Amino acid sequence: MISLLKEKNPEFILDIATGTGDLALEATKLNPKQIIGIDLSSEMLAIGRKKVAARKLAEIIQLLEGDSENLFLESNKFDAVTVGFGVRNFENLDLGLKEIYRVMKQGGVFVILEFSRPKAFPVKQLYDFYFRRICPVLGKMISKDTSAYSYLYESVKAFPEGNQMLRHLEEAGFKETKWMPLTFGIASIYVGVK
Asked: Do 45 and 18 form a contact (C-beta atoms < 8 A)?
């Protein structure tokens, strides 16, 4: 995902649904001037800030609490925007995509990494079995909360993928859209240019 941005040499990067900041930290390999990570969860951001401080990157990475569908950031600022496994959680996908488009510079690149559903036998059957039967049990053992892990499967199932997702990107204004299935279709990368 980060390597797709390499040739663009982005100076200003926005990481939406940054969580604990792992993707923002990975993006430092691109040598940007600034990375802003946005997330709704103050608890996850607190963990991310500790990681940023431990790696002495606080001058480059700023992790802020905010909503992807109502960004408090200026228009036409970012050379690149990333979202890793967070777009399917947007309450209003189209509104979130339009906000991302607004804050990007002309020619900026938007890269999404998101779960998708494999189609080929036997990967599809194994994937469904794992997410419906194994993942909730593991989730209950680890976090005592099966609902969060059941939600994961349901959110992936409900999320638009492939060409349908490309249509959402294009309706938001993005061009040069691409869809790249990964690992037999378990995840996908989507790219759009402003």
From this structure: yes
3-state secondary structure of 21: coil
Task: Note if the pTM is more than 0.85.
Answer: yes
Judgement on whether residues 164 and 81 belong to the same structural domain of the protein: yes
Residues 78 and 150 in one domain: no
pLDDT at 184: 85
pLDDT band at 122 (very low <50, low <70, confident <90, very high): confident
Residues 170 and 90 both lie in one domain:
yes
Model confidence at 142, pLDDT cuts 50, 70, 90, reads confident
Residue 35 and residue 75 in one domain: yes
Structural domain harbouring 106: 2-116+159-193
**185 CB-side CA count, 13 A:** 16
- Buried residues in 111-122 as b, exposed as e (16+ CB within 10 A): bbbbbbbbeeee
